[in-house]
């Protein structure tokens, strides 16, 4: 067997093609000093050999009874292919090429400890072909059968769960044309060496984990197959989105760090400015004077960017109108948006704007002018959700309209921040002879890329009715993501813990609001609420006009502290602690501790103080915590004392030379 080794920072991924050249298979994947080999021994019975080997990418016609990633049919009524190995190309990564009537190339690239994988499929025959299944990759996971996933719904995204698979199959996905609230495109294993898979796609998708009868776990990741399949004309090439596999010898927490590092490499480096967003304070009831009143208070506590959310444009007094007609409402902004922005600037604030460019309200002017732009299935009424319809972003003219709308707004006004929302799933199939999901998502990505290119000064926040569009595709194109509309302290903490297992803190937009809790209504202090939001990209979403002077002072103190370490939060290794989290940079570390009440066993008798062992420090060096200096070894083992009289803590730990 010919083999190739992709070497990461601490792990390696070894892939091979046997002499017969009928497939590629995983040879080993894991830590470099002991990458778990995957070898199947013994004789197969009643099935072809391909059905038991750890195939990297299985094609129907090579493999029959075990799961396959590619199914292609042609006009002859067959859906079987037998591609044969042509060549390997090494360079930036690895390409393994196989040929039949289609030319299938398996692409690999190692980034940190993440293996990026995708396929391209070219139709080399004279006839149109149809792809019925078209995954990006399958990852054979050498050890483990406990599969962890993230599930949720609106207001409770990123809930952590796991399933043990002695044998059998577990599938999650989205049929919503958007990543979805229900599941994240993320599966991981638990164990000392942890493995994880994510898919970089913001449309419909599917991830499956299957433990075969041999006992080997294999995870497939790809775009959902549509009932009508993807058509591939002669000479045409289809390229899948990227799926990535990651491995860490530091368990699930280490796996999260590998994903974080990968996402940081794909992000722009920036100082996360503290913003104020008016949504929870005013909803659609926007009036410039009132917004300015909020802005004055926001500026006085140290906020740097003021974002006007939904409701600023004509026809938008509730969620039934306005979408598509992106003109500033003169009744809400009597001095125009320019006048409003000028007054924000006088307060020292940058300006941010909310948009939802993919949607259209049925009673908007846009819907009347361009009924052909509305996504619908021929002969059917389009599906109305949250009183809105979708534009058919798979169309070039619609993509151009969306780009022009954003470009015009960003070129006409002094906008530093854009919150891109998407408040409904894409359910109407549209013209199923076209790849609507593929084209719509590609256009979305093109527009985001173009924004970055042509308006580089604008920070973009991705949002989708809370956290329905959080995935690697978005993570590579926006500066930050909104995980959930649930900002109640204890609910939010749980959501953020789930988010952190797959997504980095610089992507985690988090606001302090007045929300009391949808699922857990226990009240928490303002300090607690700040510490939760300071663990990501801090924002304020409360009605500041109701805050007392004391509350404003507390807020100012936290914002000032946050500014002292926000770049560290955005750019450091994160370790989960008992009831908290620790961000470890080169010279400084920030520790958050939250009293959730879940493990509260304090009685009335004298007790020992609670200690929290820290992580990620150098045992041979000294660190200052408050006024005391401790050896790293002590902090790692004995930890810091947490005073239980407060419900949260933020400690700064500094390296002492
Ligand atoms: C859903 C978002 O998650 C909210 O923050 C807010 O922007 C609303 N949409 C506005 O309609």
From TrEMBL:
<feature type="domain" description="Glycosyl hydrolase family 36 N-terminal">
    <location>
        <begin position="80"/>
        <end position="233"/>
    </location>
</feature>
<protein>
    <recommendedName>
        <fullName>alpha-galactosidase</fullName>
        <ecNumber>3.2.1.22</ecNumber>
    </recommendedName>
</protein>
<dbReference type="InterPro" id="IPR031704">
    <property type="entry name" value="Glyco_hydro_36_N"/>
</dbReference>
<dbReference type="InterPro" id="IPR002252">
    <property type="entry name" value="Glyco_hydro_36"/>
</dbReference>
<dbReference type="GO" id="GO:0004557">
    <property type="term" value="F:alpha-galactosidase activity"/>
</dbReference>
<dbReference type="InterPro" id="IPR013785">
    <property type="entry name" value="Aldolase_TIM"/>
</dbReference>
<dbReference type="InterPro" id="IPR017853">
    <property type="entry name" value="GH"/>
</dbReference>
<feature type="domain" description="Glycosyl hydrolase family 36 C-terminal">
    <location>
        <begin position="606"/>
        <end position="649"/>
    </location>
</feature>
<keyword id="KW-0378">Hydrolase</keyword>
<dbReference type="InterPro" id="IPR038417">
    <property type="entry name" value="Alpga-gal_N_sf"/>
</dbReference>
<dbReference type="InterPro" id="IPR031705">
    <property type="entry name" value="Glyco_hydro_36_C"/>
</dbReference>
<dbReference type="InterPro" id="IPR000111">
    <property type="entry name" value="Glyco_hydro_27/36_CS"/>
</dbReference>
<dbReference type="GO" id="GO:0016052">
    <property type="term" value="P:carbohydrate catabolic process"/>
</dbReference>
<dbReference type="Pfam" id="PF16874">
    <property type="entry name" value="Glyco_hydro_36C"/>
</dbReference>
<dbReference type="Pfam" id="PF16875">
    <property type="entry name" value="Glyco_hydro_36N"/>
</dbReference>
<dbReference type="InterPro" id="IPR050985">
    <property type="entry name" value="Alpha-glycosidase_related"/>
</dbReference>
<keyword id="KW-0326">Glycosidase</keyword>
<dbReference type="Pfam" id="PF02065">
    <property type="entry name" value="Melibiase"/>
</dbReference>
